[in-house]
Predict the 3D structure of the following.
Amino acid sequence: MKTPRTLFFLFLSLLTLASCSDDADAPEFALLAYSPETGAPGTEVTLTGSGFPSDPSEVSVTIGGVAAPVVSVSETRIVVSVPAGAASGEIRVTANGVTRTSSGGFTVLSQLVAETFSNLEAPQTGSQGEPEGGPFTKFSFATGQVTESETEWDIAFRGTTLAVNGGAPTGTADEPERNGNGGAAIQDGTFAEITSAEGLTFAQDAPGAYAIPTGSGNGWYNYNPATFTINPIPGKILVFRTHDGRYAKVEILSYYRDAPAQPDPFTDESRVYTFRYVYNPNQGEMTLAQ
């Protein structure tokens, strides 16, 4: 006759055997690689390996500890989307009770900033034969605002002149102190076509010359003597390296308050900029595609 103690150990042994049998029957899978290794929320990441389940409901993936939506699965590929709120960290795949962890970490990038800034005032004194003067209006891509900071600025406006926070004084009156590594490059194309700062040569302000050349037809604008108006040159996109080594593209839309379609120099206030920009806040990342 078996005692209760004997029956208990017999039951425990059978349970252990069943558990071992289940584990042995569970199909294994391998996580070999993933691409890309960086991306902002919404970016699709492809995980490659072998033995993945074919049913998405049987797979769970986390990036930096945050659940990532599964887009599609096959025996050798899992596609997931970087979730909102994800932090940089390991990628973990769980299926059939087994978890595999990536050999390296995934870097979650901040979203690109795409904005339009209206009515930035850039007054100046002098001109028309008189020396130009007056303080520049400084702008920061990081904050998306005009700034009074002596250091945390990227581009500065005065009349039709644009300065960058990088290089050396040009020798004009009242120009801001440059203490960053900013620069500028002028590109031909539409705003959408300029998708990266990679490979560009960035000029800096220097004695006697601005990184963005001044004068009609030389930089960003044309002056029309028949209508006495200043208008942006179509297809001229300004790409900036910011004072702290990040990147942005800018299209100047208007030089007049409220950006009238047909500015009247006698009634529309000038030296008031409207421009749109895309700013990449990620250090070392050059993409400018929206």
Observations:
- The chain has two domains: 4-108, 113-280.
- Residues 121 and 272 are 4 Å apart (CA to CA).
- Confidence is low (pLDDT under 50) at residues 4-24.
- Helices lie at 4-25.
